[in-house]
Amino acid sequence: MTTGAFISPMSALRQVKNAEPLDSRTSAALDKVIRDAARYVPFYRKHWNSAGVDFNHFDVARDLQRLPILRKSDLLKCPPEERIDSRFANQQVVAEPTSGSTGVPFAMPIDKRMHRRRRTRFLKALLAVGYRPGQRLMLISNPPYPQGAKWVRWTYADLRRGEVDVFEVYARTRPQVLYGPLSSLLILARRITESAIKVPPPKVVVSTAEQLRSVHRDLLGRAFGAGIADFYGMTELGLVAYSKPTSDEYRVMKDDLHVELLPAEGTNLERLIVTDLGGGVMPLIRFDTGDLVRRDFSLKGGPITLFSGREVDCLRRADGGWVSPYEVTVALDQLPGIRQYQVAQRRDLTIDLFVTTADANPSAVLDSAGRVLRMVCGDSTRVEVHSRAEEPLVPGRKQRTVCSHADI
């Protein structure tokens, strides 16, 4: 069990200077989710007691920065049952696996109310970037898919089936709005420019899951002939912020989330710390996303203009095709017995898979991981599997779980 990180007086002072004043609604929501967590979640009770937080005299506007930052490593060291709000003990929840950019599989429990709030945020952002109900929406994702999608003209393309299948769904659907991981969109864009099949351009393309740079935005804009929006989110929190096709500024979903931006030592970026104001079966309070942001202070309010930390590295197949890193993480996240992994492709297209196992029979886990990766990348791909000791997660820096040195 971890006690979390203590905050030095100077660090706390910088945090206070950086914090925006809390409005009454946010202050009340923060106070409730924090006090509920202290009462009903054993992990937080121990986590905060170890940091010397006294809730008899706690004032959220004054003392929020006294709560230690929560990191994924803290949660991984804690028994799952201690992370759960005891009021949800008998309720049905869904565990969504995620590795993000750390390569550490982790299951996020989501209750029905949390799911509704996340779905509402997603729909609000879709409407904000140009989607209208009744339009054909194509989503590149992985199962399971919601029931009734076809009745609202939503079509799902299974990214695990590869670029050819995704392109066939795109050509058949002729979507007015296209949504998917950036790497999958880049692969689809390459296929579109090489194909003789002409598909009417969508009105808007929504990129997600990986860091969208200006070069990516320009490439997608030319290939699809559409405006490019960006959704920033993660399995732990759902959608956090979005940008419209006409702007580089990101808008945070402040109705549901409280965001803090703390100094990142040695950079001109800031650490992204998020609290889910809705609580839920496993509340996340002052959660360090591991991502960094850049703000533009020449604009009113100093909006976020860049989320940094999720690099795009597509793997090159031996047959000349491409594999999205999202396909790789989706496949490996499902395997039991893995504590951490990293996939690295050499210039000769050989792939090294480094795995840290949590199983008494590591050879079986390594064999399964290698077999799954070969299925994703193609049987002709040479995959070398290596056992590796667990590498510590460094706050403010994400491991590139999938990286490629192959020539593009």
Describe the structure.
The protein is α/β, with parallel strands linked by helices and about 400 residues long. It is built from 11 helices and 19 strands. The protein has helices at about 10-20, 25-40, 40-50, 60-65, 70-75, 110-130, 165-175, 180-195, 215-225, 325-335, 360-375; strands spanning about 95-100, 105-110, 135-140, 155-160, 175-180, 205-210, 225-235, 240-245, 250, 255-265, 270-275, 285-295, 305-310, 315, 320-325, 340-345, 350-355, 385, 400-405. It is globular. The chain starts with 8 loop residues before the first helix and ends with a strand.
Give the gist of this structure.
With 408 residues, the protein is of the alpha/beta class. Helix content is 30%, strand content 25%. It has a domain at 315-404: ANL, C-terminal domain (GMP Synthetase, Chain A, domain 3).
Helix and strand arrangement:
Elements: H1 9-18, H2 24-40, H3 42-50, H4 60-63, H5 72-77, E1 94-98, E2 106-110, H6 112-129, E3 137-141, E4 154-158, H7 163-173, E5 177-181, H8 182-194, E6 204-208, H9 214-224, E7 227-234, E8 238-243, E9 250-252, E10 257-263, E11 270-276, E12 287-295, E13 304-308, E14 315-316, E15 322-323, H10 325-333, E16 338-345, E17 351-357, H11 362-377, E18 383-387, E19 402-404
